[in-house]
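Readers of this paper often ask what the protein records in our data store actually look like. Such a record has a labelled line for the sequence and another for the backbone structure tokens. The tokens are whole numbers drawn from a learned vocabulary of local backbone shapes. We quote a single record here, exactly as it is kept in our systems:
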Amino acid sequence: MGCKKQKRIDRKLQTNWKVYNLAMKNEDAWFIRHAMEILDGMPEPWDENAMGRPLKHPPKSLVLALLVKVKHRKTYRGTESYLREDDRYLKLGFTTPPGKSTLQEAMEKVPESYLEDVEQRLSERLKKRNNISL
């Protein structure tokens, strides 16, 4: 007398890719909009040097691009390509897309505490949006 073996049912989730892509698109839009609002209320990330040529890109736009880089876990080259795609750089406040070297130099200039402050404020907004309390 043996036990009947139950047939294992392999359940695969059906992903609705149209809905998924829309959610990812809206997530990026939410992230960028709120990061821009937070950065607008903060001081400049680094002091501009009066000597030398003027900055080609606004420092806060560079910080925003660095936040996008970290969020998407991209390299500097990958971030440059991402910003060029569909002229995303315009939405971040650039007039021309920044190069990978410019992004790398900006990462060296921006204080770590500045990025942590922006990240903290973004997470507070996200918690508030989703009614999460810790």
Remarks:
- The CA atoms of residues 21 and 46 lie 36 Å apart.
- The first helix runs from residue 17 to 40.
- Helices lie at 17-40, 59-71, 76-84, 88-91, 100-109, 112-129.
